[in-house]
Amino acid sequence: MDFGKKMRDLRQERKMSLRDLAKVSGCSISFLSQVERNLVSPTVASLRKISEALGVTITSFFDVAKGEKDSVVVRKNERVTLTSKASKVVYESLKPKGANSVLEPLYHILEKGAYSGSDYNLHVGEEFVYVLHGQVEITLDNKTMLLNEGDSAVYNSNIPHRWRNTYDGETTLLWVNTPPTF
Length: 182
Prior knowledge:
The mean pLDDT is 88. By secondary structure, the protein is of the alpha+beta class. The protein has helices at residues 3-13, 18-25, 29-36, 44-54, and strands at residues 81-84, 89-93, 104-110, 126-133, 135-140, 143-148, 152-156, 161-165, 171-178. The chain is globular and about 45 Å long. Helices cover 21% and strands 30% of the residues. The chain folds into two domains: 3-61, 434 Repressor (Amino-terminal Domain) (Orthogonal Bundle); 80-178, Jelly Rolls, CATH 2.60.120.10.
């Protein structure tokens, strides 16, 4: 996936300069320029800021899998995928591209040391996370919770939140947002 090109195309479609995008997103012009040239990979928090500033969901940056599309079923080998090298995470959408749903189900693969970024995320909606394998630490405001395999959490997304993989290896999660933010 050429994330930088997609970001540039979306920015230019909206007739925004890098300065405009920086002002709205809160990211620096130099950082955005490096992202557009694929010199750096944004963290999850930066990606969210950029997508919100462009008025799109994060899945707008995903590669669309080839093959027959269904409005209900997503085959494992046809998942739309986004990789954040900076955050050390791979997102796989479990929702058909273009499906009209209030849910955004995602399969997260967190490398050792993966994290959502140093900034807290804050947005409208609710989130559900279920640990399939490994361990994840979720911080809501100033309260930190450790979730192990089989544990789950549900919380309001307007509470400042962030996460990180605290497992000594790869952690996999089922994560559902409503409304869709990805």
